[in-house]
Amino acid sequence: MFKLTPIRIFLLIICCVLWAGPGSSIAVAQDFQKGDQVTVTAKTAELKAGKRVVAVVRRGQKQTVEQVNGKWLLTTVTIDGKAQQGWINAKDVAPFKPTPTKPNTTKPPAKQPPTMRARTPKLKKTIPPRNSSTPLFKQVGTLRGHTEDVNCLTFSADGQSIVTGGRDRNIIVWDVGDHKPLSILTGHKRRIRCLQFSPVMDVILASGGGEISHGELKLWNLKEQKLITDLPVGDTEVTSLGFSPDGTRLFTAGWSQSVSVWDVITTRRRGSARTSFGEIVTYLAVSPLEEMIAVDGKQGLVYLQNSESLLETERPTTATQHVLSDHKKNISSLCFSGDGRLLATGSEGQFAIVWDPKTGEPVRNFDTQNGPITAVGLSYDGKWLATANRPTDAPLKIWDVAAGRLAGELDAGSVRAVAFSPTDSLLATSDGTEVRLWSLRPPAVLRAR
To 10 degrees, the CA torsion angle through 32, 36, 42, 44? Predict the structure, then answer.
């Protein structure tokens, strides 16, 4: 009779592990059920189908997992209706745990009348700029390849590449390390206004643009350097776009009183929700962590809404959570920090405001003392705020958000777009047909030339 002695059990486990092969694991601390949400714990983990790597999953990304024959099948974003699945080490995943929120100790607000009114919270003291003798950034490279002005730029999630688009109707993918182009995507017939990588797969890129009478919206596969599909936006120019945190939905805005919601899997429009405030939407930003979207309104108002409420209705949505009402002139730029804790807004006046999106309260108010703001950018951790202004000779300013002070000024030229890398090691700024890269080297560097 065969007896399971401790030695035999040990040898049996070794054989099972060897049989399972790479990309799998037998012994785990917890059993997952099919469809359970998990968080990747490894810095990067390869998602494999057989010996072929189908995706690189990064730390912190929410996925679903199931156990199949002792191995672990991870499902990530889908493309063209096909789920990207593959085997992954069980040790690289853990149960998904939402970030705990601090208890709200403030008194509840007074009951509001049924009609939505803009709330005007008390601002902290306006922070005037201060002369800086120690600029924070040093220019480390220039990207040259566009023949007309660059309107937009965005980093990949790993910070290894940057994509730029502009009036010349070309999209250029650059290697951040050697500052050389990796590929050029053509197909837009009109200017490009906005770009964004999918938050879960760097091979998927969305681009939008056009003119007031004709819009364009495209999805690209950067790995294969080809167009996935043209999305039918009709006669409305796409001026702003953003992916949902899980990469399955795409939100777009442009010179209309609605926000369109697209299904990235089926590449079909899921809805076009009219805003509850009935105003033209030009700019939007989607929180990378919460189901929250920020959209601009007239007279400097910014509305924070639950993005889930935009999915199933053609009627005006009533899910406005906060109305940010401290700008006196129209909004010209807005963005979330990479960790989703802060929202930055800039207006056609000279003020930039950093907000807590959960409470709708202003954190800092920065007086740039220049002309209209053309672009704002927040570092991933929300430590730094970059502001660009007209006229074109105005310096680009870097602000220390926590300290509420000017940290440095850059002679960056005529800036239309700014973006921090996800690692906060680089800042990219457009200047006409060029893009400049600046390296963050605290506490002191030489002034960029």
Answer: 130
Side chain identity, residue 203:
V
- Indicate the domain borders of the chain: 35-76, 137-440
Tell me how far apart the alpha carbons of residues 302 and 354 are, in angstroms, rounded to a whole number. Answer: 12
What's the pLDDT score for residue 378? 97
CA separation for the pair 133, 129 (Å, rounded): 13
Between CA 163 and CA 156 the distance in angstroms is 8
Out of 30-44, 114-128, 301-315, 379-393, least confident range: 114-128
Q: Which helix (H) or strand (E) covers residue 36, if one does?
A: strand 36-40
Predicted confidence (pLDDT) per residue in 55-99, tens digit: 555 544 556 666 665 566 666 644 344 456 666 666 666 654 444
**Polymer length of the chain:** 449
Per-residue confidence band for 426, with pLDDT thresholds at 50, 70 and 90? very high
What's the rounded Cα separation, in Å, for the pair 9 and 309? 54
What are the backbone dihedrals phi and psi of residue 189, each rounded to the nearest 5 degrees, phi first?
-95, -10
Using alpha carbons, select from 41, 197, 141, 203 the residue that is nearest to residue 431. 141
Q: Considering only the top CATH level, what class is 137-440?
A: mainly beta
Q: How far apart are CA 345 and CA 330, in angstroms?
A: 10
Is residue 248's pLDDT more than 70?
yes
Query: Checking phi first, is residue 234 left (phi over 0); if not, alpha (psi -120 to 50) or beta?
Result: left
The Cα–Cα gap between 92 and 57 comes to 10
Query: Using alpha carbons only, how large is the chain's radius of gyration in Å?
Result: 24
- Find tokens 């007896």 and name the residue: 3
Whole-number Cα distances in Å, 325 to 156, 300, 329: 32, 7, 10
CA distances in angstroms from 214 to 25, 189, 209, 210, 230, listed in the order given: 52, 10, 9, 6, 13
E-only strand ranges, 44-81: 44-49, 52-58, 62-68, 71-79
Q: How far is CA 92 from the centre of its chain?
A: 24
DSSP class of residue 119 equals: B
β-sheet bridge partners, residue 285: 294
Q: Is the dihedral of CA 143, 144, 149, 150 positive or negative?
A: negative
Q: Is 19 helix (H, G, I), strand (E, B) or coil?
A: helix
Amino acid at position 123, single letter: L
